[in-house]
Amino acid sequence: MKLLHYLTTAAALSTSTLALDVLLPLYTYPGGTTSLPDWQAAVDAIKANPTIHFYVILNPNNGPTGSGCDLTYGCNRDWTTGIAKLTALPNAQTLGYVYTRYGDTAQRSVAAIKADINNWAAWATAPTWDAAVTANIKVHGIFFDETGPTAATTALYRNLTTYARSTFGARAYATVLNPGGQVDRNAEAALFSYCSAIVLQETCWTSAVSTDCPAGTVPFSYAALKAGSGLPYDAGLRGKTSVLVHQFHGAAPTADNATLLAQLKGVAGLGLHSTYFTSADWSRTTVAPAPVGVFAALLKQARSAVAARSAVPGEGAEGVGFADSTRQWVGKPGWD
User: Fold this and answer.
1) DSSP one-letter code for 251
2) 336 half-sphere exposure, CB direction, 13 A CA radius
3) Among the four 3, 51, 73, 235, which has the fewest Cβ within 10 Å?
4) Torsional sign, CA 194, 197, 201, 203
5) How many angstroms separate the CA atoms of 280 and 290, rounded?
6) Peptide bond before residue 333 is cis, with ω within 30 degrees of 0
7) What is the mean pLDDT of the chain?
8) How distant, in Å, are the alpha carbons of 3, 13, 188 from that of 331?
């Protein structure tokens, strides 16, 4: 991989709108000597869209190790072989999954969380199924799932994110917090200051009840996003906000390419950090009508449309003025 840095001067951007990135929960098994279809589809989509930055969340076993792992770092050769395909791509940034039980340290201790952080940070090189290849499996960030959204938990997440940053050291690094919904207004400024992005809405396209979509799930629409409901209260934090959508299928409204493109244009126009839509759950990337390759191609179209609109006087995107409005990814030699 190549090192990806932020340009921090306003002159670096030609418009006031950031390019929407992808936050891809790749919660699928990679395969062995040959990648399984859902893993390979993600690799192919990343290769086919070099101008899009993909944050790829790795999750072998509800974290970096456990049943089925026979390597101290890297889980097993299936994982090291699969991850090597990602780390070879300059626009893929791997994040390690760590669950935190919404800040309830009686359910998951700080020591257990930090042990996962230590494990992810220690991933470096490991053997693969190719005897001639020792893979680069370095991870470049942490995805903190089940983030506590209240002021009572902010000290914990300051502790955890500070610890993660110091543990990873100088390595290019990102932190994403996932409360799966809105954070309390009095916790918002603190939590956003600790991380690269927060998932303020993780929901479904359909209202049909499933494991991913419990009863009462309100179907996603970018038009329904507003401050306090999928968007931060402080509009200046939109550029650090992510939304994730499961189960993009069905006919109310019709889940097709045109609908997905319209939704992605809307999300991009709000100036958000990242998104991902899947037509199944996070373990499947190949299910129509939004397999990962189609999603990425439509996201590219949406980004172009919003950028073009922003370049027209009086036609700027909705999401202007956010705090990190100078964020722009640039490939640099040396991404390790």
Assistant:
1) B
2) 10
3) 51
4) negative
5) 9
6) no
7) 89
8) 6, 15, 31
Helix H or strand E segment including 121:
helix 110-122
| 100-109: long-range contacts, CB 8 A cutoff, minimum separation 24 | 100/144, 100/145, 100/146, 100/147, 100/148, 100/156, 100/157, 100/160, 101/146, 102/146, 102/147, 102/148, 102/149, 102/153, 102/179, 103/147, 103/148, 103/150, 103/152, 103/153, 103/156, 103/157, 104/148, 105/156
Whether residue 202 is predicted with pLDDT greater than 70 in this model: the reply is yes
Domains of the chain: 3-330 (3.20.20)
The Cα 215–Cα 219 span in angstroms is: 11
DSSP output for 154-209? HHHHHHHHHHHHHHHTTS--EEEEE-SSPPPHHHHHHHHHTSSEEEEEEEESS-S-
For the chain, percent helix, then strand, then coil, each to nearest 5? 35, 20, 45
Predicted local distance difference test score (pLDDT) of residue 18: 63
Beta bridge partners of 126: 135
Could you read off the pLDDT of 147-175 as tens digits, one per residue?
Answer: 999 999 999 999 999 999 999 997 789 99
Question: Is the per-residue pLDDT at 16 higher than 70?
Answer: no
